[in-house]
Specification:
- This protein has about 250 residues and is of the alpha+beta class.
- The chain is built from 7 helices and 5 strands; from the N terminus they run αααααββββαβα.
- It has 2 domains: about 5-140, Four Helix Bundle (Hemerythrin (Met), subunit A); about 145-250, SCP2 sterol-binding domain (Nonspecific Lipid-transfer Protein, Chain A).
- Helix 1 (about 5-20) runs antiparallel to helix 3.
- About 35% of the residues are buried.
């Protein structure tokens, strides 16, 4: 996979997100995040960006014990798009001022500052898609960007139990699920063990007990719960009970 410039992609996705919502009604419901409006979605995305930026600036070395931070949230929802744009600009400044290869605490697999840039990218991208779908658009994600997002999700999901407790149930006696993209080379084999689960990067050609095939974009949206495995464009084969276990407990 061609290396991606995650910092540049955060800026591009944020700009697209802002462009989508700037003239929209903040009260518009967001079907892919039930119970949320566009205002809720933008507030969440901007808050996450500002929180991640604060972590990067401090280059923390252990899990923070407090999330006490002035997020500068505007009083009026109509001002949220500009506030999100400002958050993205602040994030870009932090990226430029930080050695992204420097060791740093992160909740996922990669204990370096770059973890937070990649995580911010896909947090922003998925919510950009949420916004565009809510406004009648399509889920348009560049294939290689989507493939990187699938990899990021599956790499870090085993570490997410403290905020995604269902993942603790992803256990089995050496059962495997393959996520295969249909619009390019590459697949991901997840192995469920009695003590946990994770990507098996040394088993590229191994058989799988269940397989999910789709474009990289649809795989990404499926993993994030934005589409269902019964959706058009998604093909499943193999152990249905294993797939049911996965999708019931892998919510991020």
């Amino acid at each position: 996979m061609t290396p991606l410039d995650h910092s540049a992609a955060v800026a591009a996705e944020s700009a697209r997100f802002v462009g989508a919502v700037r003239a929209a009604d903040p009260a518009t419901p967001v079907p892919t995040t039930p119970g949320w409006t566009l205002a809720d979605l933008v507030k969440h995305a901007g808050s996450v960006q500002r929180w991640f930026t604060a972590l990067l600036r401090q280059r923390i070395q252990e899990r923070p014990t407090s999330r006490d931070l002035d997020l500068k949230i505007p009083e009026r929802a109509e001002a949220y798009p500009d506030w999100l744009a400002d958050a993205a600009a602040e994030a870009g400044e932090a990226f430029a001022a930080t050695d992204l290869d420097a060791p740093m605490w992160a909740w996922g697999a990669d204990q370096h500052a770059r973890f937070w840039v990649r995580r911010m990218l896909f947090e922003t991208l998925v919510h950009r898609v949420d916004a565009e779908l809510a406004l009648g658009g399509k889920a348009d994600i560049a294939p290689e960007l989507a493939a990187d997002g699938v990899d990021e999700f599956l790499t870090n999901l085993p570490y997410a139990v403290f905020f995604a407790p269902g993942t603790a149930k992803l256990r089995a006696e050496n059962r495997t699920i393959r996520f295969a993209r249909t619009d390019g080379d590459g697949s991901w084999l997840v192995r469920l063990r009695p003590d946990g689960f994770g990507l098996d990067r040394d088993a590229a050609d191994a058989p799988a007990d269940a397989t999910v095939s789709a474009t990289a974009a649809d795989l990404l949206l499926l993993l994030y719960g934005r589409v269902d495995r019964a959706s058009e464009g998604v093909a499943v084969a193999g152990d249905e009970a294993l797939l049911a276990l996965w999708f019931a407990n892998s919510a991020f």
